[in-house]
Specification:
This protein is mainly alpha-helical. The chain is built from seven helices and no strands. Keywords: Membrane, Transmembrane, Transmembrane helix.
């Protein structure tokens, strides 16, 4: 059995009362609470983004990519099928990636993950989709059997390529202005630090 002295604690061990109350205890918690690490806690719909030029373009890209995918899926007979399969892959991939980016931007998830350069991610995504839609539309136009689904898919493919190209242009402008403003901010902070 422990006597009263041992119950209050001895040298080298904190007493139970100081651990519970936290008063002048050397044993303070060093980790952050779990609730402050919640990434998806403040998800909200950003209607300002959806009404902006980039948001409207993303919605148009998703819709046109879906239409292109549906058009190419209506093709029942193909010989050679390489152009159809390539166009199908490009339209499905662009639809998925653009939909994910639209969700990330419209729900403001990109503000919760600041480690990723989202303007550069959007720029690379739109430029890649534009290039591959151009390539897939040219290949499908060269190899198609003049069926209605293939002709419609080629027309929609060139149309969605133009929308992605315009979005790429806007993303390049946005990325350049942000990059320029961040470099001027960094240089002014450097000058202020040097002067003090």
């Amino acid at each position: 059995m422990r006597n009263a002295e041992e119950a209050d604690g001895f040298d080298g061990e904190a007493s139970n009362t100081s651990m519970i109350s936290g008063a002048s205890s050397p044993y303070q918690p060093t980790t952050e609470p779990v609730h402050s690490r919640n990434v998806f806690g403040g998800i909200r719909c950003d209607t300002a983004y959806l009404k902006s030029n980039l948001g409207i373009l993303k919605i148009i890209e998703v819709v046109l990519s879906l239409i292109a995918f549906i058009c190419i899926e209506t093709v029942m007979v193909c010989l050679p099928c390489g152009g159809v399969y390539f166009f199908e892959f490009v339209s499905c991939s662009a639809l998925l990636i653009t939909s994910i980016l639209l969700l990330i931007f419209s729900l403001s998830i990109h503000t919760k993950v600041p480690h990723i350069n989202w303007s550069l991610t959007d720029l690379v995504s739109t430029a890649t989709s534009s290039f591959f839609f151009l390539l897939a539309s040219i290949v499908l136009a060269a190899l198609n059997r003049k069926s209605g689904g293939e002709i419609t898919a080629v027309i929609v493919g060139f149309l969605v390529m133009a929308v992605y190209a315009f979005n790429t242009y806007l993303a390049v402008r946005s990325w350049c202005t942000r990059d320029g403003s961040s470099s001027t901010t960094q240089s002014s902070e450097y000058i202020r630090a040097r002067s003090t």
